[in-house]
Amino acid sequence: MSDLHTRLDTLELKNPILTASGTFGYGDDLPGYVDIAEFGGIVTKSLTRQPRDGNAPPRIVETASGMLNSIGLANIGVEAFLREKLPRIRDRGTVIIVNIAGSKIDEYCEVLELLDQEPGIDGYEINVSCPNVKEGGMEFGVSCPHLHTLISELRDRTDRPLITKLSPNVTSIEEMAEAAVGAGSDMISLVNTLVGAAIDLEKRRPVLSTIFGGLSGPAIKPVALAQVFKVAEVVDVPIIGIGGIATATDVLSFLMAGASAVEIGTMNYRDPGVGPKLVPAIDDWLIQHKIDRITDVIGAAHG
Amino acid sequence: MTDVYLTQAPVRSNQEIARQIFSLELEAPDIAAAFHPGQFINIQTNPDGAPLWRRPFSIARSRGQIITIIYKAIGIGTHQMAGMQPGNTADIIGPLGNSFTTGLAPGDRPLLIGGGLGFAPLIILRDVFVRLGLRPVLFMGALTADEHYYREDPDAELILTSDDGTLGTQGLVTDALREYLRRQEEPSARYYAYSCGPEPMMAQVTRICQGFGIPVELSIEREMACGIGLCQGCVIEQKPPRKKYALVCKDGPVFDGTQLTLTEGAPESL
Question: Dihedral of CA B202/B206/B212/B216: which sign?
């Protein structure tokens, strides 16, 4: 067996597979055949200061090799998470990353401060790129100065690792990555969903209640790989690759493009246990190619 | 979710029982032993590609280690299902969701009102009630005779309707329900209604039952990306003071009809 451990800043992962925010709940309410300890880490659903109902239905629609969603950050709120969820997932043998969303800098900071008082959280992923709510912090995801200010404020408030999750819906994702790192982000994860739409012919209306939603799934994988490749050229911090990952080949592709780990998202909907099932195939490939450590392939495609 | 299984279920049979409507029997001992009427399974119709999502189907019947689902071949996933044969296996997750209330007392009269494919989850309920010695009244409506897949029942009262009059009474199944309740002369009979079908039909069933003071449980259908509460996509709006949106996959698919904000409108297919 090869050494599948990978490192994200100060975090040691047993394998490079995490779950993407919004595709794995809070990690506590899964079918019995899924064991979170088999993942390198899990990323929770986005948490906001107050609970949110989310958007009106329809919220989801299947598309070619993917899906659109417009959930609207439906979540139980940070306080209920700390009370009901965190005790059930910490100390379970996997890295716990909590995803934070907000509409204003103050809200992000309040959520982070509440989380930071609790043990058992290994790091934060900052959602600056939710396309589905008007006040979803999207301005932080498309404006370098806004992003820099937000990440700086959060950096001042925690010593835990900070991951900035970037939107692909920008002109230059490299500039956004540089702004985040310049403000003290320890890592970058990318990409969030791509803005998309679907039309209901019979109703002559958009399918989604919000008109636009976020496209995810294998359809976006080449886009995500390109963005990861670009960002890897300009930042020196660890990168987490996200976007349509379904197979061991996909995982290795993202690592070679420059990611140190990956998040699996949409494919969890088919099988929430899919992540750990890719591990043996990744190991097989490494053994066949006489590679002892998975970290040896990180960035290999950059020549 | 301790009683949820992911399993490769051998196909026992897959027969067309009405026009484009199929009955698929799967060997799934864990699910057959664990499920309750109203629960569903989520089936992956193509492990290698499209469609991306599994497709959810209520369990329509069960005997021994076998569970049966009934589906109509209308889209890419269900057409793939129509091609399944003995010798194949189906990748399924289940049992999922909540279930119907089945704890009725002797003398209670269950009313099962199904529109089209919506009759499927009511069949297992019928089986349970018959086993309990109750005599359920079954209302089954479809567009036309060709789409009727439940035509006889020696152990229950069966009332059939079709929109075009080719089988049973011409008209809507909701009209048949209303007529039936008006004719009843036993005010003491304790009725419990269960319904599944197009949403406007279920809205009408709920109104009729409320008018007669009869409790009504509905099995709601929604597109689902996951079926297990992860995607938060399959929501239905509830009335206050309940939380605004319920997950059909997890809080449902069975709901008290009076608690939901249902889609109204002209029923299309009863």
Answer: positive
Sign, CA torsion A95/A25/A178/A256: positive
Complex ipTM: 0.94
- A30 to chain B, any CB pair closer than 8 A? The answer is yes
The DSSP output letter for A158 is: -
Give the best residue of A53, A247, A270 to mutate against chain B (max B CB count within 10 A): A270
CA distances from A303 to A178, A252, A289 (A): 22, 16, 18
What are the pLDDT digits (tens) for A287-298?
999 999 999 999
Return the residue matching tokens 């199929």: B22
CA closest to B54 among chain A residues = A270
Q: Contact A65/B52, CB-based, under 8 Å? A: yes
Distance between B161 CA and the closest CA of chain A, angstroms: 27
How far apart are alpha carbons A190 and A176 in whole angstroms? 11
- A24, A53, A65 ranked by CB distance to B245: nearest: A53
| DSSP secondary structure code for residue A185 in this structure | -
Between the two ends of chain B, the Cα-to-Cα distance in Å is 35
CA distance B61 to B69: 7
Q: What residues of A are labeled active site? A: 130
Q: How far apart are CA B57 and CA B34, in angstroms?
A: 16
Superfamily of domain A6-54+72-193+217-302: Aldolase class I (3.20.20.70)
Q: Residue with structure tokens 């690792």?
A: A161
In whole angstroms, give the CA distance from residue B139 to residue B122. 10
Task: For chain B, say whether A208 makes contact (Cβ under 8 Å).
Answer: no
Peptide bond into A280 cis (omega under 30): no
Partner B contacted by A51 (CB < 8 A) = no
Rounded CA-CA distance B102/B131 in Å is 11
Q: What is the pLDDT of residues A53-112, one digit of tens each?
A: 999 999 999 999 999 999 999 999 999 999 999 999 999 999 999 999 998 999 999 999
Instruction: Provide the shortest C-alpha distance from residue A179 to chain B (in Å).
Output: 31
A100-119 confidence digits (pLDDT tens): 999 899 999 999 999 999 99
Could you tell me the two tokens for A281?
């195939």
Could you tell me the residue ranges of all domains in chain A?
6-54+72-193+217-302
User: Do the Cβ atoms of B137 and B159 come closer than 8 Å?
Assistant: yes
